Amino acid sequence: MLRPLCGLIFLLAWCSLAAAGERYKIDPEHTFSSFEYKHWGLSLQRGRFDRNSGFIELDLSAKNGAINIEIEANSVSTGSDLFNDIMRSDSFFDAQQYPKIIFNSTKLVFDTERLTQIEGMLTIKDTTRPVIVDVTQFGCRFMLIYLKHACGANGQTKILRSDYKVGRYVPFVSDEITLYFSVEGIKE
Q1: Domain count, the chain
Q2: Taking Cα atoms as reference points, which of 135, 150, 181 lies closest to residue 58?
């Protein structure tokens, strides 16, 4: 009984890998976006956004696809309720007027089988600018826990806060920040 079940799982995984143009829904339990900045030249501080959604479309044989990530600005988490409220205010993200931070890819860059960069447009508040996300980890596989194929990646990019109208307290708080993305998607 175990042998046919293992064969079926292998067949499902193989067929899943062979399919072109797969669509994955971002798993909010395993996806988050974070940021890092210098605080008064003393230390690197970090924060994160706890609610992310979107999709990944991949055609690995053609080496192309699309990624859309929507980040709820109101989900910013710094470890301090007071600072979270300040970050959500109109002094920074203005989460009430601009509830979403959005990244839409324009190009996926592969080095043989490995995804290495994602070019795209990042929108914060009412400003959209091009960014290049360097991919540090990428993988796809059949996940027994879901009985579905899943893909995931980690990446990072640097931006200037002032380019997106969230530059308050520059230069005391660094204008340049690093954005980190940890994304996992489950095949629909």
Answers
A1: 1
A2: 150
pLDDT in tens, 58-80: 998 999 999 999 999 999 999 99
Q: Are 76 and 47 in contact (CB under 8 A)?
A: yes
**102 three-class SS:** strand
- Domain containing 116 equals 2-187
- DSSP SS3 for 141: strand
What is the radius of gyration, based on Cα positions, of the chain?
19
Looking at residue 109, which CATH number applies to its domain? 2.40.128.110
What's the pLDDT score for residue 20?
59
DSSP assignment letter at 168: T
User: pTM of the prediction?
Assistant: 0.86
Q: Quote the CA–CA distance of 188 and 34 in Å, as a whole number.
A: 26
What percentage of the chain reaches a pLDDT higher than 70? 89
The string of DSSP codes covering 33-66 is EEEEEEETTTEEEEEEE--EEEEEEEETTTTEEE
Task: Round to whole Å and give the CA distance between 44 and 157.
Answer: 16
pLDDT band at 4 (very low <50, low <70, confident <90, very high): very low
